[in-house]
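Comment thread on ticket #2218

A.B. wrote:
> Attaching the input chain for the structure job we discussed in standup.
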Amino acid sequence: MRVYGYTRLSKADRPRKGESPEDVEKRQRASLVAQEEAIRRACERNGDELVQMFVDDGRTGANTRREGFQAALRAVKRGEMLMIAKFDRLSREVVTWYDLMQRADRRGWYIAVLDQRIDTSTASGWLHAMILAVFAEFERRLIGERTRDALQIIGRTKQLGKPSEIEDDTAATILDLHGEGLSARAIAAALTADGVPSQRGGAWHHSVIAAFLRRVDAA
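C.D. wrote:
> Ran it. Output below, let me know if you need it in another format.
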């Protein structure tokens, strides 16, 4: 089968505290290379032909208007396959997944996701993909609810972390990154690297992030 591969950077691949631009580029390149190698190995194992790779560079999983993703959709044809190394590198939204699978069904091509062993060329693989998409959407909605609740509490009591350190937009970013699996230390480094101001004007400290997350969990 002819296969088109798709790889993407995520928020977890963003710059970290103390990293040089060269180190950031090296780590991000390693992430993309690892995804591509997984796709190449799968094609070799299955006797498939890898026709072309498409890449996006860190745009959010909620955005399906990514240039590389759209190019991949234009390229794949009937009887061919779009292959992704990791489930969340395509989209975490069930509607997006369903629309994509409907599009693939209408046009006669397939989707494979290696880390979840999804292959929509079979009925069981199609069902597996839909179940995972539903759970991914459920997790995304939970994160959204926690963000809204946290912002409401900030507005009422100003007791989440130190109110002058945790602004509303920053609180939403922290919860978003936490939902991506980043630790308090990694979130602090990401905020500092992105130039998000802290109360003292210096680097963010992981203890502030950890205290904020504990209070959100207890809310």
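A.B. wrote:
> Thanks. Noting for the ticket: The chain has two domains: 2-121, 137-218.
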